[in-house]
């Protein structure tokens, strides 16, 4: 039985990388019937397309998203830094699928501002090669982490996240996350938004931010590399969905097999699209 959800936000899926948890995401998407689906950046990782890696579960995620858009779900694809090639095609619409750089919605009379968040990242804006190098290092770290967690699962031990440990203990990382959340919230308050929703930093969050000028609700959908999280809005309430908290109740993917496609062929399709 699929759950009806008014609005779902996912971001930082990074299809095309070894760290992407496409199978888990597909199980989640197959479990819901969203009225609106917002893909808030870094869904397809164009930066990593030089690798010969784009397995069937990743293709199935794309197929599922297209399936939503061909039925009764409004799908918004907001561009991020890892899929910035789509920024050349802002405002493109195909049926219920729309591509944009940011999105402003009125959700039950609440002004809502949605964007990926890389605009706040100086390394992406001014030193892209450094950012890409960091992305490759992060992807390698996730591969090693996945191997270690595979072993930990075999011996019935709890999983461990290198990246979360670094984020929680390195002062610069903690400060960056805090500054990111505050900057987004201050801009939202200045522009009289009730909600501001981001991705980019892979840190799921729902919290109210108050300044001298007012207050707003800051939300972040997290990612599908480590946290496996999404934002859901239903019946006037925001929640963070964590896959690990619900995985036992989600059915395995039983959709039909699809043909393999080489990343270079998929890249040609993306280039034609843009």
Automatic annotation (TrEMBL):
Source superkingdom: Bacteria
CDD domains reported for this sequence: MPP_YbbF-LpxH
Entry keywords, A to Z: Cell inner membrane, Cell membrane, Manganese, Membrane, Metal-binding
Isomerase found in the keyword field: no
Domain Calcineurin-like phosphoesterase, first and last residues per copy: 7-204
Record SUPFAM superfamilies: Metallo-dependent phosphatases
Transmembrane as UniProt keyword: no
Protein name (record): UDP-2,3-diacylglucosamine pyrophosphatase LpxH
Source organism (scientific name): Chryseobacterium taihuense
């Amino acid at each position: 039985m699929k759950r009806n959800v008014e609005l779902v936000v996912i971001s930082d899926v990074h299809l095309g990388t070894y760290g992407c948890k496409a199978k888990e995401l597909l199980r989640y998407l197959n479990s819901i019937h969203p009225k609106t689906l917002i893909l808030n950046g870094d869904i397809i990782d164009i930066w990593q397309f030089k690798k010969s890696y784009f397995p069937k579960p990743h293709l199935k995620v794309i197929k599922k998203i297209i399936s939503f858009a061909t039925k009764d779900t409004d799908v918004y694809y907001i561009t991020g830094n890892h899929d910035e090639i789509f920024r050349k095609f802002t405002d493109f619409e195909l049926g219920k699928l729309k591509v944009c750089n940011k999105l402003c919605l009125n959700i039950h009379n609440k002004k809502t501002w949605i964007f990926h968040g890389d605009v706040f990242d100086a390394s992406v804006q001014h030193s892209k090669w450094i950012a890409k190098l960091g992305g490759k290092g992060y992807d390698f770290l996730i591969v090693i982490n996945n191997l270690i967690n595979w072993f930990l699962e075999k011996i019935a031990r709890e999983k461990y996240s290198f990246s979360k440990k670094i984020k929680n203990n390195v002062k610069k990382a903690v400060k960056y996350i805090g500054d990111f959340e505050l900057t987004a919230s201050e801009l939202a308050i200045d522009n009289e938004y009730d909600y501001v929703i981001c991705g980019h930093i892979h840190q799921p969050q729902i919290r109210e931010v108050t300044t001298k000028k007012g207050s707003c609700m800051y939300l972040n959908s997290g990612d599908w590399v480590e946290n496996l999280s999404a934002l859901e809005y239903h019946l006037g309430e925001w929640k963070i969905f964590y896959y690990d908290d619900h995985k036992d109740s989600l059915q395995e993917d039983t959709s039909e097999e699809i043909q393999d496609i080489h990343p270079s062929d998929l890249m040609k399709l993306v280039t034609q699209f843009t």
